[in-house]
Write a structure and sequence with these properties.
about 250 residues; about 40% helix; globular; single chain; Rossmann fold; binds NADPH dihydro-nicotinamide-adenine-dinucleotide phosphate
């Protein structure tokens, strides 16, 4: 028997990794999920199929961030999917998760082009997506931004990426104030190193060293982050807004 559809969600970048785990978790709770991706259609289809196999409902939406019209393309796809599958085009949960991650780029190797791309995908797109999604967002809704522990721990190789995430965190602060009267909460989740299949994590020495950065002595699984997002998306989190939630497993506590 299919579960009742009460809420809808858009999870950006949910074809893979943490976004996929968030989409699957929300799907298990009966939320109709828009699975957004940039290029990897096969992976997006995999996420949609896995949600449906688990008794949920989902559809995929393609839109590459950082190109002209990116947010228009995403909102068009979102509306089309909601019109087809939901009672109306209202949105309850927006998760700004999609990002490009620069690992191993030396500080000196950060070109103006890379800097602009990081800002365009990781900060500009979620800002305008959030701004433009407001008319769709129902009162009492949820906006959750996925940042990074790198706004708190220094790693000079990734300063530009960290700057893009620091900008993203401002959405949490300022939109929370703006949307309070509509009971829409806006929060940020900051993961630490999470095992999303990066090849370097297969190297035992690297894996061990990175695992030991967390108090729990292991890497995060995507589900560890998805569970925190699901809590923030729930009614139990109605009194939390404008907050940055550290979900790094106690990384670099000292
Ligand atoms: P992945 O690289 O596994 O997945 C990235 C997702 O974003 C994919 O769905 C991808 O789509 C999409 N995406 C990438 N580029 C673009 C683009 N230009 N336009 C639109 N969508 C795009 O990411 P993770 O799961 O590792 O990370 C998820 C979030 O968590 C990110 O915000 C990241 O910064 C943050 N984070 C991750 C950590 C980690 O250790 N993994 C640690 C701390 C924070 P497609 O499949 O089509 O390429």
């Amino acid at each position: 028997m299919s579960r009742p559809i009460n809420r809808t969600a858009l999870v950006t970048g949910s074809s893979r990794g943490i976004g996929r785990a968030i989409a699957e978790r929300l799907g298990r709770e009966g939320v109709l999920v828009a699975v957004h991706y940039a290029r990897n259609e096969e992976a997006a289809e995999h996420t949609v199929k896995s949600i449906i196999a688990d008794g949920g409902r989902a559809f995929q939406v393609r839109a590459e961030f950082g190109v002209p019209g990116d947010v228009d393309t995403l909102l068009e796809g979102l509306r089309a999917g909601l019109e087809e599958l939901a009672e109306d085009v209202g949105l309850d949960i927006l998760v700004n998760n999609a990002a490009i991650i620069t690992s191993g780029t030396a500080l000196e190797g950060t070109t103006p082009e890379l800097f602009d791309r990081l800002m365009a995908v990781n900060a500009r797109a979620p800002f305008f997506l959030t701004q433009r999604a407001l008319p769709l967002l129902r009162d009492g809704g949820r906006i959750i931004n996925i940042s990074s522990g790198l706004t708190r721990f220094a790693n000079p190789q990734e300063v530009a990426y960290a700057m893009s995430k620091a900008a993203l965190e401002m959405i949490g602060l300022h939109f929370a104030r703006y949307l309070g009267p509509r009971r829409i909460t806006v929060n940020t989740v900051s993961p630490g190193i999470t095992d999303t299949g990066h090849p370097s994590l297969l190297v035992p020495q690297i894996r061990e060293a990175l695992s030991n950065l967390a108090a729990f002595g292991r890497l995060a699984e995507p589900a560890d982050i998805a569970d925190v997002v699901a809590f923030l998306a729930s009614d139990d989190a109605r009194w939390i807004t404008g907050s940055v939630i550290d979900a790094s497993g106690g990384t670099m506590l000292g």
